Amino acid sequence: MSKLSKKSLIASTIIGALAFSASNFAAADALTKLQKAEAQIIKASSKSQSKIDNIYEQTQELLAEYRNTVDEADVLRGYNDHVQLMVDDQKANIKSLQDQIAGIDKTKQGVVPLMYKMIDTLEKFVDLDVPMNIDARKERIAALRDVMGDSDVSVSEQFRLVLEAYEIEANYGTIFGVYQGELDLGDRTITADFVHMGRISFVAQSLDMKNAWVWNNEQRAWEALGDEYLKPVTDAVRMARKQLPLDLAKLPVFAAGAK
């Protein structure tokens, strides 16, 4: 081969090598760019996924809050319904109380005059009745009149006291009692023992047990008893004081309405 040919071959080889090297450089540069682009894409994708994850977590939190809010709303709705029932019941009770108060006012208008009539009737009854414990009974009636004028005493309490006085008067008809007091004989007054068997018999005896009297309710006066009644009256006094056992006693009868 001639020197020129060898030189041409070497030159061609160098040019081919340079061309190949240039081609490799171009490919490497493209690969680098591609790798950078992929890296950017991956990085961008990672950021996007992170944003998606954050959005998902926020969505789950909002969903949980919504569900809690819905649950609380249901609870509050149920509680409000319960409270409304209570309010409605209280309104009904208030209405009932208002009606009762109005009724009480009307009742008072009828009860108060009735009580005054009851006291007047009781006073007349005591005045006409056998006068055992007469002072205490009249004091009770006077106290009732004072109570009726006392604004600090309720109408219900006033009515209770009036009924109580009637009950006490009714009990006098069943009591076997004795007490000591002043006996007005018209011309003189002495201390005596008084004993009564309900309203059937009301007798008195001097403290020396030498004289005895029986109340005549028709005459509204005391009448002297004969000596045959002295011991029976003494025994009746002692039985009423539980100094003797209860037994039959012969006592005169001068009850209300007796002839």
**How would you classify the helix and strand content by structural class?**
alpha+beta
Distance separating the two termini: 191 Å
Task: Give the overall silhouette.
Answer: rod-shaped
Rounded to an integer, what's the Rg over CA atoms? 60 Å
Strands side by side in the biggest sheet = 1-2-3-4-5
Number of strands: 5
Total of DSSP H or I helical runs spanning 4+ residues: 4
H/E series: HHHEEEEEH
Strand content: 5-15%
Structure in words:
Pfam families: DUF3450 (PF11932). It comes from Colwellia chukchiensis. The chain has 259 residues and is α+β, with helices and mostly antiparallel strands. Among the domains are: 81-172; 176-259, no CATH class. 65% of the residues lie in helices and 13% in strands. The protein contains 4 helices and 5 strands; from the N terminus they run αααβββββα. It has helices at residues 3-128, 134-148, 155-171, 230-240; strands at residues 176-184, 189-197, 201-206, 212-216, 221-224. Strands 1-2-3-4-5 form a 5-stranded antiparallel sheet, with helices on one face. The longest helix is centred in the first third of the chain and has 126 residues, at 3-128. The radius of gyration is 60 Å and the shape is rod-shaped. The protein starts with a helix and ends in a 19-residue tail after the last helix.
Short account of what is shown:
65% of the residues lie in helices and 13% in strands. It is an alpha+beta fold.
